[in-house]
Amino acid sequence: MRYRVTVTVSSAIQHVHDVQAVEINHINENGVLSSCLVWPKGYSVQPCPSLNWNHTFLAKAYYIVQEQLRYTDQVNDICGPLGTELLVIDSLEENDFIVEKLKAYEPSGESKVFLGCPGHQPTPPRNFSCRGSDATYQESTSASMGFWNWRGGKPEAVPGKCIRLNTEDDGAWVVSGCGPLSNFVICQCQRGIPSGTLVSTRFNQITFGSKNCLQGDRIMRVVSVHSFIECVMECQSDVSCSSFNLIGQNGITTHLCQLSVYHSSIVDLANFIVDETCKYYELMR
Q1: d(C-alpha 270, C-alpha 277), whole Å
Q2: What Cα–Cα distance (Å) separates residue 10 from each residue in 92, 198, 227, 231, 258?
Q3: Domain 55-190: CATH class, spelled out
Q4: I need a labelling partner for 40 at 20 to 30 A (CA). Which of 160, 179, 229, 275 fits?
């Protein structure tokens, strides 16, 4: 049996402190309409000021400065006055993107950059937390939330309360002192929904009995997102996209958005599987 939940992302957009919220109207199987305003997760990152940003990745923009500064100077003298935050990385895909950009600046040498995720003290065991994010790492128990990319799988038992990404280690993170030990400064901001954009899309969440997720070999592209709205926008921006899986677990801020050219009307039901962390949607253009 095929089930549908029809949702409309309307053109009603509200602005609060220059961050845009999108109104979502939900119609249940009895035809009852409910609506709410949604701010995609990740909006704790500062909205982008009017600058010429070097690079963009999903909803983030980055301002890269090739300069050797202490951690506190990077936060207080570079990113802070711009109205932004020091770099916080949310996924392996974003980590790889940053490494690629740094290698383009320094193709023959090692690039090092501080992350905005300091520890609460310079000696182990430390608790690390990322600015403008809910990502945390507790060194005494290895308990964590969010994305962490330690070299060797955990922080080394060396003095230091700062975290540094090194391109020679394929983007692995290490504990370090907070002096002038990086040769780049990366500030980030949240692009969010572009100014003036009106989203008007109807789409269906579809299941086939207990089967609720399109299998991986039907997926054309995978991106990391912070919210359902970002996945909708990724699909809208790709003319070949007709559907997507949104995969994630409660309490995890980063989700996988799996875009597909396929539609359930032309895909065999054998291409769908049961996955409790997945929801499958079809866009109705």
Answers
A1: 19
A2: 32, 8, 16, 16, 23
A3: alpha beta
A4: 275
Span 2-43+193-284 CATH architecture: 3-Layer(bba) Sandwich (3.50)
Q: Where are the domains of the chain?
A: 2-43+193-284, 55-190
| Span of 36-45, 184-193, 214-223 with lowest mean pLDDT | 36-45
Q: What distance in Å separates the CA atoms of residue 232 and residue 169, rounded to the nearest whole number?
A: 34
User: pLDDT tens digits for 11-20?
Assistant: 333 332 333 4
Q: What is the pTM of this model?
A: 0.56
**C-beta separation of 13 from 22 below 8 A:** yes
Instruction: Outline where DSSP puts E strands in the chain.
Output: 2-16, 19-27, 33-38, 55-57, 60-65, 85-86, 112-115, 127-129, 136-138, 143-145, 162-166, 173-176, 185-190, 201-208, 213-214, 221-225, 243-247, 255-260, 272-273, 278-284
Residue 17 in tokens? 């402190």
Average pLDDT, the chain: 77
